[in-house]
Amino acid sequence: MDGLSLQWYQEFFNDSALRDSLFASLEIATVTMIVGTILGTMLAIGLVRSRAKWSPGANILMLVPLVVPEIVAGISALLIFSQVGLTLSIWTVVLAHITFSISYVTVVVRARLASMGTETEEAAMDLGATRWGSVRLVLLPGLWPAIVAAGLLTFALSFDDFVLSFFTTGEDVQPLPVRIWSAIRFGPSPTINAIGTLMMVVSISAIGLALLIPRLFGRRESGVKVLTAAEGG
């Protein structure tokens, strides 16, 4: 067919296997975003506010997933799941993605938290707030743009991830990147090109929204400053 056409997108959505893989990838990315953001935020608060002796070592350990090649992380996850007797499925993919994404969330939220200082929290406790109350009423609202931006970044990374998904997926519905790899071995197809374009749009939209989050919350700093934890003016 010559000229512009949406035929191949229609072919994609008419293919039940590809459609199920798309929904599986969206499910994996959504669960990873929610759980990874919660755990990463808790870890960031603990690393910055804790005065324990283990805190410096934990800060270094937290960076390990960021510097280890992803293929090593994928093989390690596969070996761990095999050793503990977990059957590979969509949930082992989710576990691997969460483990990998926590560090990204922690880096963004931790550095942002370090630039905020403790004066406002201490003032809230002087006025009668509990420790948890100061976190809930003062700390989290100040961190909210960074938390949401880190979550959206995690969603984009999980949705596009191939290596971890390849090593940890099972016999049930495969994530979309793995399904694409399986299909492309038999030759390129216009439908695969359409899927790639769709995935790129989803990922760019998630990252673009992460960059716009501070403006949507009425902050003066840009999303780039939030994601890189630079202090706004």
What would your notes on this structure say?
The protein is mostly helical. The protein has one domain: Orthogonal Bundle (MetI-like fold). Helices cover 77% and strands 0% of the residues. It is built from twelve helices and no strands. 32% of the residues are buried. The mean pLDDT is 80.
Structural class by secondary-structure content: mainly alpha
CATH superfamily annotation: MetI-like
**Estimated helix fraction:** over 70%
The dominant shape is globular
Give, in order, the helices and strands.
Answer: HHHHHHHHHHHH
Question: How would a textbook summarize the main sheet?
Answer: none
CATH architecture: Orthogonal Bundle
Number of helices: 12
Q: Return the CATH topology.
A: MetI-like fold
Q: Quote the beta fraction.
A: under 5%
Using brief descriptors, characterize the structure shown:
single chain; 233 residues; mainly alpha; MetI-like fold; 12 helices; 77% helix; globular
In short:
The protein is mainly α. It is built from 12 helices and no strands.
Give the helix/strand layout.
Blueprint: H1 7-14, H2 16-49, H3 55-62, H4 64-67, H5 70-84, H6 90-114, H7 119-126, H8 131-160, H9 163-168, H10 176-184, H11 190-216, H12 223-227
